[in-house]
Amino acid sequence: MTRLSAITPSGHVQLGNYLGAIRQWALHGGPGDLYFVSDLHAMTTPHNPSRLRSLAREQLAIVIAAGVPPESVFVQSDLVRELGALTWLLECTCSYDEASRMTQFKEKSDGRAGVRLSLLTYPALMAADILSQGAAEVPVGADQAQHVELARTLARRFNGVYGEIFVVPDAVLPPSGARIRDLCDPTRKMAKSTQNSAGVVFVLDPPDLVRRKIKRAVTDNMSTVEYRPAERTGVANLLEILAGCEGSEPEHAGESMRSYAELKDAVAEAVIETLRPIRERAEQLLSDVDELRLVREGGAERARQRCAYRLDAALRLAGAS
Ligand code: AQP
Q1: Residues with C-beta less than 6 Å from any ligand 1 atom
Q2: Which of 237, 238, 279, 270 is nearest to 62 (CA)?
Q3: Which of 5, 55, 238, 292 sits most deeply, having the most CB atoms within 10 A of its CB?
Q4: What is the model's pTM?
Q5: Would you place residue 176 in the very low, low, confident or very high pLDDT band (cuts 50, 70, 90)?
Q6: 207 with 140: CB under 8 angstroms?
């Protein structure tokens, strides 16, 4: 059974991506699971080409450095020709109404000028990502569940009209990992593309910078270290980060601590030690052009082989060849 997960190079990989997703992939991934860097998805909004290229490389290096098996990882744009062809077939299977009904399209395009057409059509590309690899399960949060539902609809429709070719995928809940919040504004989640990087710990940040960011994390005017996520979001976030790094529970992570300074020191050291081996291995991979290239080429070849017969059959069934 294949589960397919992705990470989008919309910014540098941050601690939340690691604790909430990449580490789970490395620890709990099954033998048929697949992971990809969804760089084509990062092109639906204005982007800088060389930055996108370098962020995609960085993500690939971090995912491998974190222990995800290299043979299960690929970069989406390495399959751009296959995905482009399948996306077209799926766009020809999808109605305009279905695409324009997607909540994310409505929210992101609302009132904006110059919205890229790809913002409307990228759920068809996402369906192509899923259907081309024969994924049976797609772990996604609530914001992407509607897109997986569309992929299900398109797979069923294509199978019904032209012939059984696609596995009909299910959206499943991702393995539960910590939901990390921004250090400067704990009312929102930590995110790669946040403008103010002071609240975001990046996986490749050097230890001194990690220490500085955590020292400046927003807390509150109380002084006891207690886990009360509803009222004391900043402190609760620090305890969740500590627990996520130590493999403990946030309710107990700060039990012996008597000040916020002590808590912040413990969080900083735990984060630095958790990220150290990944940062060091990723830096090694990024500086060894050949090793990363070989990993990437191998991943692309396997992904291409997995999708070849489905794409050929789908094109033939739809009358395109
Ligand atoms: N703060 C977070 N805590 C826990 N998990 C997180 N993830 C993201 N942020 C946190 C998980 O990381 C995986 C890959 O994310 P993605 O690239 O597909 O998209 P995202 O969720 O939109 O990630 P970001 O960092 O928030 O990027 P931007 O700034 O572009 O929106 C997913 O499994 C996600 O749950």
Answers
A1: 6-8, 10-11, 14, 16-17, 20-21, 141, 174, 177, 179-180, 189-193
A2: 279
A3: 238
A4: 0.96
A5: low
A6: no
